[in-house]
Write a structure and sequence with these properties.
Elements (H helix, E strand, L loop, with lengths): L4 E4 L12 E8 L5 H15 L5 E7 L8 E8 L2 H8 L2 H10 L8 E5 L19 H27 L4 H27 L1 H4 L4
């Protein structure tokens, strides 16, 4: 059985004076074309690694075999280098080769950090909220989550080694923040985060 996630190795050509950026790319693959897609992925990933600022790429495989959506997480050291790759002739050729393997055109979303937590389902994100707003909402989320987790998990995890205890509690905390707390706080504060001009 294939791992649900596979990684390509990281490149070392990073810039210290830039901010990393992530592109989240979705491909819905036609049934029976999974092996072709994975061969395609490894080929395009090898070419992407040759581009300046490439930090790594991962793909999350579909768990639902009735909807074969692969999610590609592509990291570059800055937006300009990501844009150079996304608009390159080499990538354009790879995307042409991809067409017979997918059901619909790919979707690409570009993210630079905390804004991954500030996405509204009914509003594709063009630009993230200001950093201070993201910081304040994230702080509130952590403030609400940590005491609750400590109270609930302390009796259950107290007999475990400290490192394992921390591994479990931080994993649960991040999952709660990502899938439960932050989506709700983003909805609650949507008018403040995304004021209408």
């Amino acid at each position: 059985m294939l791992n649900p996630m596979f990684d390509e190795p990281l490149a070392s050509n990073t810039s210290e004076e830039s901010y990393p950026v992530t592109a989240v790319i979705s491909h819905v693959v036609k049934s029976g074309r999974e092996q072709g897609y994975e061969a395609w992925f490894h080929g395009i990933a090898a070419d992407a690694r040759k581009f300046k600022g490439h930090l790594g790429v991962s793909t999350i495989r579909p768990q639902d075999h009735t909807h074969l959506e692969y999610v590609v997480i592509l990291r570059f050291d800055c937006y300009d280098n990501l844009k150079t790759w996304l608009e390159s002739d080499i990538r354009r050729e790879w995307i042409e080769r991809l067409q017979p393997l997918i059901e619909k055109p790919e979707t690409v979303q570009t993210l630079t950090g905390l804004e991954t937590w500030f996405t509204l389902s009914d509003r594709p994100m063009k630009s993230p909220p200001p950093r201070y707003k993201m910081m304040l909402v994230t702080w509130l989320a952590v403030f609400l989550t940590l005491p609750m987790l400590n109270r609930l998990l302390a009796p259950l995890l107290s007999g475990l080694p400290v490192l394992l205890n921390q591994l479990i509690s931080t994993g649960i905390g991040v999952a709660l923040l990502t899938y439960v707390i932050m989506p709700r706080l983003t909805q609650l504060f949507r008018k403040w985060l995304y004021p209408t001009p």
